[in-house]
Amino acid sequence: MNDKGLKLGMGFSKRVVLTLAVLLCLYIIFYFFCYPNIKYKPWWSVSKIALFKAETSTPARDRFTPAARTPAVASPGTTRSQTLHKASTAGSRKTTKAPRPRGTTEFSYIGDRYATDDVPSQTSCANSTRKRVKGTTFKERFLEHVPVLQWHKHGSPEEYKRLRQYPGAHGWGSVDYETLMNTLSILNTSANRLMFDDWERRANGSSCIRCAVVGNGGILNGSKKGREIDRHDYVFRTNGAVINGFEEDVGSRTTMYTFSANTLRNSIASYGAVGYKGPPLSEETRYVFLPDHDRDYILLKAAATHTPIKKGPESSKIPPRYFGDNVTLEKFKMYHPDFIRYIRNRFLRSNIMKTEYRNIYRPSTGAVMLLAALHTCDQVSAYGFMTPDYSKYSDHYYDKRHRGVTFYANHDLHLELYLWQQLHKEGLIRLYMR
Ligand SMILES: *[C@@H]1O[C@H](CO)[C@@H](O)[C@H](O)[C@H]1NC(C)=O
Ligand SMILES: *[C@@H]1O[C@H](CO)[C@@H](O)[C@H](O)[C@H]1NC(C)=O
Ligand SMILES: *[C@@H]1O[C@H](CO)[C@@H](O)[C@H](O)[C@H]1NC(C)=O
Ligand SMILES: *[C@@H]1O[C@H](CO)[C@@H](O)[C@H](O)[C@H]1NC(C)=O
Ligand SMILES: *[C@@H]1O[C@H](CO)[C@@H](O)[C@H](O)[C@H]1NC(C)=O
């Protein structure tokens, strides 16, 4: 080989290395940019590492800082560079070798075992979801007797021991025993136990409970579905559900309003300008807490007993007024953490759970609401949920200007979209599509 040939050879291999490096960088950027779309693991992610901290103080949130280039924003307190650093070391050997905190095995993280409630069916509906599910592909996953709501009966030292290993909305790991019991002990009326506490009064000869579950999706803009929605026995809504001025498209009634202390504050902050003033206030409205953190237990207790909150983000000298001055204890309900964990494990087991973001992942508030309806109503019609053509619509029906759907690392909206399609195809829900 002459000199020239050698030079050419070196130049060539340099170029190969450079090209490979660029391709690798593009792959990494592509992966983080399009994360929720990707249903396979990248080669550097290690599934079995225990990235999970038993005592996390970060509640799962519905609204993070929008995930500009990296949907992987761990918490509002985490800076972008920290996040990127964490992401880049996610699969490194160092992490793999890190000692596994006690009690954080794959099994105790998932915890696919739940309490059983023998709440008798509230109706004798011949054509109910619970009956129809047996003839579908969901029959194995669907547990008819999983508790949907938690109340007085569920609080005990044994149950606390079982559920404290799951943080956030999936257990009682984020709430101390005293705070928990202070709240559960007041949830002791039949209205706190039953989703449809006024059904007997309301039934009027009907044998099936028909529910409209209304998400906030932009597909509802111009839908003219308001009257159809209001004709159902119960109307479910969540978070920034603005009604004023949108009645023709979304209806005007709200029977079940689902939220968490955190999403409520975020909704007031984010959608105040489009007319969201707080939870709907009507005689028929019930408030169903999705407890992410001890803040939810504290807020429920204070609101139901009309006492001020002494510390935390909701603290105030006067009792919380989100739910009206005269709200009664009978109007409050709270989802059972077993129910949230059950739907995460069996209906929305996202690949995010294989990453270091698994501690902040939970089904979205809308998903919890829709699956709760599926487990309690006889017939479910869903409106304003993600559909395959979501990019044609704005994020919310009440947006002033078109804005695309934002994907956050703490939810898996693509997986939810896919689940709604499956449930619709199998006749378990009727999903509004255009
Ligand atoms: C049962 O209810 C579903 C959903 O509402 C409906 O599509 C179906 O036609 C009903 N079947 C019968 C036999 O009434
Ligand atoms: C809750 O209700 C049950 C049954 O009505 C009753 O036995 C129990 O004493 C009540 N507990 C509290 C704390 O009020
Ligand atoms: C009860 O049903 C009857 C007959 O379908 C109807 O005329 C009446 O308006 C209903 N009442 C209520 C309170 O919905
Ligand atoms: C709340 O109750 C008080 C006292 O009974 C009454 O004066 C007030 O009108 C009620 N407020 C609402 C919004 O119902
Ligand atoms: C809602 O629908 C109207 C009529 O089709 C349209 O002009 C408007 O831009 C839509 N709003 C958003 C936020 O997309």
From TrEMBL:
It is a single-pass type II membrane protein. Residues 76-93 have a biased composition (Polar residues). Pathway: Protein modification; protein glycosylation. It is an enzyme of class 2 (transferase). The keyword Disulfide bond applies. Its main location: Golgi. The chain crosses the membrane at residues 12-33. Residues 67-105 are annotated as: Disordered. It catalyses: a 3-O-[N-acetyl-alpha-D-galactosaminyl]-L-threonyl-[protein] + CMP-N-acetyl-beta-neuraminate = a 3-O-[N-acetyl-alpha-neuraminosyl-(2->6)-N-acetyl-alpha-D-galactosaminyl]-L-threonyl-[protein] + CMP + H(+); a 3-O-[N-acetyl-alpha-neuraminyl-(2->3)-beta-D-galactosyl-(1->3)-N-acetyl-alpha-D-galactosaminyl]-L-threonyl-[protein] + CMP-N-acetyl-beta-neuraminate = a 3-O-{alpha-Neu5Ac-(2->3)-beta-D-Gal-(1->3)-[alpha-Neu5Ac-(2->6)]-alpha-D-GalNAc}-L-threonyl-[protein] + CMP + H(+); a beta-D-galactosyl-(1->3)-N-acetyl-alpha-D-galactosaminyl derivative + CMP-N-acetyl-beta-neuraminate = a beta-D-galactosyl-(1->3)-[N-acetyl-alpha-neuraminyl-(2->6)]-N-acetyl-alpha-D-galactosaminyl derivative + CMP + H(+). Its EC number is 2.4.3.3. One of its GO terms (cellular component) is Golgi membrane. Keywords: Disulfide bond, Glycoprotein, Glycosyltransferase, Golgi apparatus, Membrane, Signal-anchor, Transferase, Transmembrane, Transmembrane helix. Belongs to the glycosyltransferase 29 family. This is alpha-N-acetylgalactosaminide alpha-2,6-sialyltransferase. It comes from Scleropages formosus. The lineage of its organism: Eukaryota, Metazoa, Chordata, Craniata, Vertebrata.
